[in-house]
Design brief:
This protein is α+β, with helices and mostly antiparallel strands. Helix content is 34%, strand content 28%. The chain is built from seven helices and six strands, in the order H-H-H-H-H-E-E-H-E-E-E-E-H. It has a six-stranded mixed beta sheet. Strand 5 and strand 6 form a beta hairpin. Helix 6 (107-120) crosses helix 7 (190-206). The longest helix has 18 residues, at 61-78. The two termini are 30 Å apart.
Length: 214
């Protein structure tokens, strides 16, 4: 059976063209922005999350260090290099994943979305990223990302700029990730929301994930 972008819940070439052509998010993007070198072992920093009861700035070195590893894992996923290890380590089993095309609830819905990505886009590269805010207590990361996708079959390159909001539990596992293309909220009116939920249900029928799940 042929698998097409619309079946996989990922941007079709037409939709990518529309999004890329209509990008309106203001502000220049840094060519490459990374978090500063680790000052402490992130494994040692995680237990401190439970003790925080106030928001802290991304300029705080300890906050930077905590989220550095998170950013690395998300880059692997968005660049089409998903692994079961990353998903199990970084995501809560009941996490919610949202973008304009799908709204996934739980591992069995969001995991196939990531494994579908390289099937449609054999090459996906991060052009730029910029952390907008990062906080502990509650644990939340917001960053801006521009990703360039090469569409399989057509070999067309398209870029999408997103504002990505990630919420975490006390163990720094993702409980909710919302990918806002061009900074816009995913559609929620009844028809669009229904299609996004249908997309989340259908994608696992076409895309399998590794079986050695814990």
């Amino acid at each position: 059976m042929s698998i097409w972008p619309s079946q996989l819940g990922l941007p079709t070439p037409e939709l990518l063209g529309s999004i890329a052509g209509g990008a309106h998010y203001a502000g220049a993007l840094a060519r490459s922005t990374s978090l500063s070198p680790t000052r402490d072992d992130p494994q040692q920093l995680r237990p401190r999350l439970k003790a925080h009861n106030r928001r802290r700035s991304v300029d705080d070195p300890s906050v930077e260090d905590v989220f550095k590893e998170v950013m690395q894992d998300l880059e692997e996923l968005y660049c089409g290099r998903p692994t079961l290890e990353i998903l199990q380590r970084r995501w809560h089993q009941d996490a919610v994943f949202e973008d304009p095309l799908c709204k996934c609830k739980g591992f069995n819905e969001f995991a196939p979305q990531w494994f579908a990505l390289p099937k449609i886009f054999p090459k996906s590269e991060r052009v730029s990223t910029r952390v907008i805010s990062a906080a502990l207590g509650p644990n939340e990361l917001v960053y801006q990302q521009t990703q360039e996708y090469t569409v399989r079959w057509l070999r067309i390159k398209k870029s999408i700029t997103s504002i990505i909001t990630v919420e975490f539990d006390e163990e720094l596992k993702i409980i909710r990730l919302v990918d806002r293309w061009n900074g816009d909220e995913p559609p929620t009116h009844w028809g669009a929301l229904g299609l996004r939920r249908l997309n989340a249900k259908l994608t696992p029928l076409f895309v399998s994930i590794p079986k050695n799940r814990k």
